[in-house]
Amino acid sequence: MDIKQYLKRIGLNHNIDVTLDTLKKIHRQHLLTVPFENLDIHIKGELNTDSESLFKKIVKQNRGGICYELNWLFHRLLKEIGFQTTVVGAKVASEKDNGTYFDHVVVIVDLNETKYLVDVGFGKHFLEPVTFVENSVYKDPKGLFKLVKKDDNLYVLTNYNEKSDSYKEAYTFKYEPKRIEDFNVRKTYYVKSDDSHFKKNLICSRETEDGRISLKQDRVIITREGMKEQYPVKTFNDYNHYLKQYFNIELSEYEKEKLSSWYNQ
């Protein structure tokens, strides 16, 4: 892996070391520059998760991906830099009874005898790594988070919801090392099943310093300091324009043809 090129993709230079400050900086910059997006599900009907394909897509082609892509490649970057990482599987709360512990890829970093939860592939989420301190509130620029231990290797990540004045479950994960191949069955579900929310929607979203920008097939949502503005997306030209404006994604003619079918129905 070309570390220098990857870091340039997220707006950093290559003069880094294995420190908590570096981990926070890389994590933050990744979320601010690399979008959570599912376009290849609708363009190719598949997701390639080998490291070479992911590097080409995310780094060289200036694209993003979903958790299997983003967190796996981020894990590879951290290992190349010198961090000690473990990939685990998580069950996402929004999947309810349909969820499995392969819904989501999560990375855990061991640094100076402290563990950190790392996640650049979950959409709206924490901006900096969450310290593994059980039942303690972690204050992040994006909100309050709490890690709850259920048993010896089972953890629940929760985040504070102002409307309900309570902590809501984001996902549950088992601290058991996984390979990317272990997620293939669940990945296929998200790519192929008509019940998959990734199959039902076009999604492209990234963090900003004061909020978030999200693009769906029918609207763009810009959140700044908790205030939302929405603008309609009526044509593929609108959609393509917002992809370039907010995410710096330039589609090939083939990719445009595949995605434009959303607006020709």
Automatic annotation (TrEMBL):
It comes from the Bacteria. It is an enzyme of class 2 (transferase). The keyword Acetylation does not apply. One of its GO terms (molecular function) is arylamine N-acetyltransferase activity. InterPro entries: Arylamine_N-AcTrfase, Arylamine_NAT_domain_sf, Papain-like_cys_pep_sf. The keyword Acyltransferase applies. Keywords: Acyltransferase, Transferase. Its EC number is 2.3.1.5. Belongs to the arylamine N-acetyltransferase family. PANTHER family: ARYLAMINE N-ACETYLTRANSFERASE 4-RELATED, N-HYDROXYARYLAMINE O-ACETYLTRANSFERASE. This is Arylamine N-acetyltransferase protein.
